[in-house]
Amino acid sequence: MDTFLQQIVNGVTLGSVYAIVALGYTMVYGIIQLINFAHGEVVMFGAMVAYSVIVALVGAGTTLPPLAILALATLTAIPVCMIVGYLLERVAYRPLRRAPRLAPLITAIGLSIVLQNVALIIWTRNPLPYPQVITTVPYHLTSHPDGATITNVQVAIIALSLAMMGGLLLLVYRTKLGIAMRAVAQNPQVAGLMGIDINRVISFTFTIGAALAAVAGVMDASYYGIAHYQMGFLLGLKAFSAAVLGGIGNIAGAMLGGMLMGIIEALGAGYVGELTNLCALSSWFDAIAQRCTNDAHLELFGSNYQDVFAFVVLILVLVFRPSGLLGERVSDRA
Amino acid sequence: MQVALPIGKARHPAVAWTGIVLVAVALAALPFVLAGIGTAWVRITNLAILYCFLALGLNIVVGFAGLLDLGYIAFYGVGAYTYALLASPHFGLHLPFWVILPIGALIACIFGVLLGAPTLKLRGDYLAIVTLGFGEIVRIFLNNLSRPFNLTNGAQGIVLIDPFRIDGYVFGKSHTLGSLVFSPPINYYYFLLIVLVAVIALNFRLQDSRVGRAWEAIREDEIAARAMGINTRNMKLLAFAMGASFGGIAGGMFSAMQAFISPESFVLVESIMVLSMVVLGGMGNVFGVIVGALLLSFVPEILRYTVGPVQQSLFGRTLIDPEVIRMLLFGLALVLMMLFRPAGILPSAVRKRELEAGVAPGGVRTS
Amino acid sequence: MRSIHTIGVTLVTAAIVGMYGCGKEEPKQAAAPKTETAAAPAPAAAPADETITVKIGSAGPLTGEIAHLGKDNDNGVRLAIDQANEKKIKLGGKTVKFEVLSEDDQADPKLGPTIAQKLADAKAAGVVGHLNSGVTIPASSVYNQAGIPMISGSATNPKLTEQGFKDIFRVCARDDQQGPAVAQYLESMKIKKIAIADDATAYGEGLANQVEATLKAAGVDVVAREKTNDKATDFKAILTKMKGRNPDAIFYGGMDATGGPMLKQARELGIKSVFSFGDGACTDKMKELAGDKNADGFICSQAGLPVAAASKGFLDAYKAKYNVDPIIYAPFTYDAANLLIAAMQKADSADPAKYLPDLQKISFDGATGHIEFDDKGDRKNAEVTIFTMKGGKLDPVAIVKGGKSIAFGDFMKAADAGTATAAAPAKSEEAKKQ
After folding, report:
1. S-S: C131 plus which of A318, B184, B362, C60, CB 3.0-4.6 Å?
2. How many CB pairs (< 8 A) connect A and B?
3. A6 lies in a domain?
4. Are C189 and C223 in contact (CB under 8 A)?
């Protein structure tokens, strides 16, 4: 039971990170029907920039409390990522807005590669250890001393993630800008006729997404203690799958999808081995029974297939419920 | 209209034929010229030809049928592993290559259909992600199928793969003919060249056939195509299958040439590289993608030799790895091509029209 | 009309390709500059003596993540060549000038055969390299085809010497010696239950399998066998699973980039088991990645002897020439280069066909101790060192040689009592193997 609880805690934390990144994907897709492949790299940039700031501060022997260092790093990463996000849209996506869908998609892939390699040049290929500025304090969830725990960092990540979603919902549903965003998402031409500056709205969407990505990057890197120039790609793909799971274009869907994806991955990695343990079939097949006398684990699919879960979920969703759990919100594009 | 080498209809067939003969002679002599500089360059050429195969295969899926496949390298991997499993000490099987290559193509075809089937109803972007997912799934399986039953030997890869062998002529060993030394890379070069010519011819025939036109119709407007009576589902599956089969054959040849394969060679980045070649060269244009493949195979190698010393002399150290330059080239090729010349270096007239539809009169992009 | 257009294009392409053929003379010459003339300009100075140039290849990752290790290996070779050139060795009556051809394989298995071909084309008389098993194995086929002897200072995958190539050697231990060594040490710590994980790479998986096999044979209960991948950052799922099975120790086959975070996350989850790693995670970086507190007390192994035990002569010469200490396998590559030279001297010829038999039978005392090869090309009685991290530093605790474990202190006493040069290979800090 403790193991299960712990897996859930791990899954929810992981899911919170996916959720924030998924928000970026879902907003952009809702507005211009483009999978921003480069979004994962923006997350990575956020983590890297924050890393440089933290290392510089720690190296200079700062006396600031750890939280302040982290906050400062995040506050530096956010504008940098916003600029990167803005540039992506302006330089690469805007000119291709009317091109057939293949073009911006290919461009996005190309940008993802370019960004990865730029980061490689700046921060080298080595995995960068995040200086441990925050001491981890575990809180026990059950009375068992060795049982499930949740650490302060995990709590912070989940809380921050929820707060950001709340903020975004506020933005989208209670401000004029939010109304404009929803209008453009629904029907860009008519929104333009109503006097909304479409280009500005779209740029704004990208920058907000990028800002969220920066925070997600810092969260991810400080949680795991390591930042790497390739950390963004797979994270981005899984977050996108999460967005699709929840319903693309739907903000609440992105959060829900993210959390679910995290839990599915954690539980999957933890339990798929046991579920596919062929030794359970020993009573039917002699060959298996023989093999299992030495080694009670004959797992067909083990935890090494952890990354596959995101893709399998994606394919299943697209085949059986393409609009996602909470329904998609995209405009009709002829 | 695509050019289909109708020599008979050329205005001056004699010139056309002379041209072809000259090209043939040049290509036949090429490996010896390169070997004079270094057999390494023949190896690089062989790898370039393999990329040509991959580009041609992806061209069928992306160029002809308009389906963005980001998991294409999986078929390459499947073909490579098929050859490796049937011609190495791993299972103790040593089938001859002319048996295995068709089997590899067939298995790749099956995978192509498996990949295509669930994606038929998907929009372009989702199709891309799902195919990417499939590519990754195949790679992860190749990497992990060493437990509980050792199928692919996992991350360790398969070693000591048999080279091609025709009646005692082993491709993996050097043979001397008069004053010419046929080293293993040179042996493979000729084989690859012959198969490449056959594949090119096949591609041209395909383009001008009913199937090719059906693909073109689907690419331009799927609903209209269906209304015209084209079975879009089967045609799309056929596109995946045919594209996959080219990848499968190329994979088999890769296996034999390298004598060692591991899942590391079939990562997502390779899929993207093949896509770059197709995009750079010209989607839908057979010669275009070959040019794209050759460019993106040779230029990074040449830069590897030139950029390093240049950086050393200018900055005293290497600022940017040749490997990073290579990847930057690929990424930039994709981005810049899409922005400025989406139809590619050698555009196919039809695609050019389609892709530049978003351009206002005067060639100015509306912002 | 269109047909001629196409023919024209193909002709132009052919012409360009043809020009490439001629133009490629340049790149080859640009590639050649990676050679370094170690000795002072000889030709003008020694008109009476005939000098021949013998090229030794040095292959490894000179760019990329483990460029620092590749450079370290390269330095070892160059040191050996420099010293050899100073000695003015004669082969077949002619003074020899040794030249190092350094090639960068970027730790990429696809480049292994290409680099090997380049060195073969350049008529290298022998090659020291590569660094990663995953690159060395494909490259070895090419060296074998070309008849060039190759000695690796760091490739530990057993397959390298199981291919039946008579001219492929290694001077370090194999994973199937390292694995059992680790397992034996763990056993001596009275471990009853162990969980094993690896990063699904050739190196990590191979090593973990070896450890598993040895421990199972010794009757230890392997309660979990997990896998992750070398780019993963989240290990909590598999760690939680392992925690549920309560192992006394956890072994992870992988590099420090994944081992460090794994250790950190394990301690965060409250896992108290002892952690044990292979040489990939036997580095100082572990304390950065895992956090100082978490890193204390883990065990790791290295194929070879710790730097402290390396021959003083080598350490001093290396420091004097390069101003830094060797990182890990420099003493091995140093010995490898010297082995090639020694074999050439024995055969009085730089022709591989002539000196190969001498290389196979050689008996040599180098910076890493006494070296002899068995009939597969492996080093006889290769040593494995077990380290533990204490107070942020890696301390050697035991040497495992020929299946027997000797406490480090005792080993050093025996070594001091013996000849001064019997002390062995360098401080192995990081060995990235694949």
Report:
1. C60
2. 137
3. yes
4. no
Question: In terms of pLDDT, which residue wins out, B259 or C28?
Answer: B259
DSSP states of C145-163 = HHT--EEESS---GGGGGS
Calculate the average pLDDT of chain B.
85
Q: Is residue B213 part of a domain?
A: yes
C-alpha A220/C-alpha A156 separation (Å) is: 12
Structural domain including A215 reads 2-320
pLDDT exceeds cutoff 90 at C16: no
* Facing A114 at nearest CB: one of B335, B357, B358: B335
In this predicted structure, what is the pLDDT of residue B316?
Answer: 67
Compute CA A168 distance to the chain's CA centroid, rounded to the nearest angstrom: 16
CA atoms within 13 A of residue B263's CA, in its CB half-sphere: 22
Return the DSSP state at C232: -
For residue B152, the 8-state DSSP code is: S
pLDDT over 90 (residue B324): no
Tens-digit pLDDT profile for residues C64-102? 667 777 888 899 999 999 999 888 888 888 888 999 988
Q: What is the CATH number of the domain that holds A13?
A: 1.10.3470
Contacts of B264 (CB under 8 A, 6+ apart): B155, B157, C109, C134
User: By the 8 A CB rule, do C226 and A217 touch?
Assistant: no
Distance from CA of B202 to the nearest CA of C (A): 17
Q: Residues with Cβ < 8 Å from C80, sequence gap 6 or more?
A: C333, C334, C335, C337, C338, C341
Q: Report if residue A51 sits inside a domain.
A: yes
Q: Containing domain of residue B146, as a range?
A: 38-266
A28-54 tens-digit pLDDT: 988 888 889 899 999 999 999 999 999
Report yes or no: B157 and B254 within 8 Å, Cβ to Cβ. Answer: no
pLDDT band for position B156 (cuts 50, 70, 90):
confident
Distance from CA of A161 to the nearest CA of B (A): 26
Domain count, chain A: 1
Do the Cβ atoms of B260 and C2 come within 8 Å?
no
Among chain C residues, the shortest Cα distance to B27 is held by C14
ipTM exceeding 0.90, yes/no: no
Residue C54: which residues within 8 A CB-CB, separation 6 or more? C91, C96, C97, C98, C99, C125, C344, C350
Say yes or no to pLDDT of B367 above 60.
no
What phi-psi label fits residue A139: left (phi over 0), alpha (psi between -120 and 50 degrees) or beta?
beta
Distance CA A194, CA C271 (A): 60
**What's the length of chain B?**
367
Cα-based torsion angle of the residue sequence A163, A164, A165, A166 in order, rounded to the nearest 10 degrees: 50
pLDDT class of B34 with cuts at 50, 70, 90? confident
Nearest to A225 among C236, C240, C261 (CB): C261
C241 CB neighbour count, 10 Å cutoff: 23
The domain tally of chain B equals 1
Residues of chain A with C-beta less than 8 angstroms from the C-beta of C204: none
Q: What is the distance between the alpha carbons of residues C405 and C304, in angstroms, rounded to a whole number?
A: 14
* Chain C environment of A225 (Cβ under 8 Å): 260-261, 264, 289-291
User: Within a domain: residue A333?
Assistant: no
pTM: 0.82
Inter-chain CB proximity A117 and B331 less than 8 Å: yes
**Does pLDDT of C424 surpass 70?**
no
Rounded Cα distance, C259 and A17, in Å: 22
Low-confidence residues of chain A: pLDDT under 70: 294-298, 329-334
For the record, the structure tokens of B233 come out as 């589902």
**pLDDT for position C308:** 64
Residue B5 inside a domain? The answer is no
Q: Is residue B19 part of a domain?
A: no
Which tokens hold the place of A332?
């009709």
Alpha carbon distance C5, B3 (integer Å): 9
